[in-house]
Design a protein that fits this description.
One of its GO terms (molecular function) is protein homodimerization activity. This protein is of the alpha/beta class. The chain has 18 helices and 15 strands.
Length: 410
Amino acid sequence: MTTCESDLLRVLHERGYVHQVTDEAGLDALAARQVVPGYIGFDPTAPSLHVGSLVQIMMLRRLQQTGHRPIVVMGGGTGMIGDPSGKDESRQLMTDQVIADNVAGIRKVFERLLAFGDGPTDAVMVNNAEWLGDLGYIELLRDVGPHFTVNRMLTFDSVRTRLDREQPLTFLEFNYMILQAYDFLELARRYECRLQMGGSDQWGNIVNGMELGRRMEGRDLYGLTTPLLTTASGAKMGKTAAGAVWLNEEQLPAYDFWQFWRNTDDRDVGRFLRLFTDLPLDEIGRLEALEGSEINAAKTLLADEVTRLVRGEEAAASARATAEQTFAGGGRGEDLPVAEVPPEGLRVGAALVALGFTASNGEAKRKVAEGAVKLDGASVADAGHLVTLSASQEIRLSMGKKKHGILRGA
């Protein structure tokens, strides 16, 4: 849309969240005249979400900031099955207790980013096990089954990809899209939910839910997806050479979380500031226009702002202080040894030798085996681990408490 009547659509467009909308004009008009409850689902497969889920969480924050009601749906029911979208193999099934523990851990981040309560725009967190757990199989087949065709379900990317690769897709997983569609209908009944949002890989599931609501109860529902989020180098958001970037402190120390954002590729700074911070757009425009070494100030601000939102003021201040102590020159590592990482990558053992931390590959292997080597704070278990970085991207390599160096993409 060239112009938006509602603050919701205007903000989502301005900050780069919009990929597809089912009926943008209709949603825009609705959001301009009333509170729109909208939801995103999260499967509690771990005690913390990682950075790859942060764009979805921020979408719920934008929903609330523009006067609407966020609904956080924990997939306690669907999580027992597993979403085949983007997966090459079946997900391990979880017990009720594991799911409950994971939900409790995940809630911590949402409580920082959303305001929960009983007001018309206050966020609510629900678990779809509340209704899916009591849903009888015969009832589901009778009431919901007639509104789906196997022909149509086979056309969805999440299903077709697995079948094209001749990888198993269990009947259990095949039913995931039906249950997610039923979630949308149930949320519409319970909370007058009108909007489902998600990543671009959820488009088919979202449309299914809209169509089910229309066919069963004549409901007018909407869907909106975000673009697939990758870094400028093409890497999947939320993954680094050292592993997943977890949102919770228990899974990843605040300093390492801060450092992940400080290591952002120059080309991603403006986009990430719009998506992951509340900074005004004109200020972001000024920051992303910085060039050369000055762009590091924008990266530091990005790290400060995201860490403050996700971990809190104290964690952000502590992480920044640690960075300044570890890296001379305001956290840039100007006084630390640097080893360039060629496009084909550099193995950790070779990097230790290149930085002068060890005299030989054999010594490097011993240090790794002793647990003395870390990449951005995460222990390295294999001296042969290949580090790949985009141009100008940096990552910290440490051996023990006193030896720190920078690996920089060539």
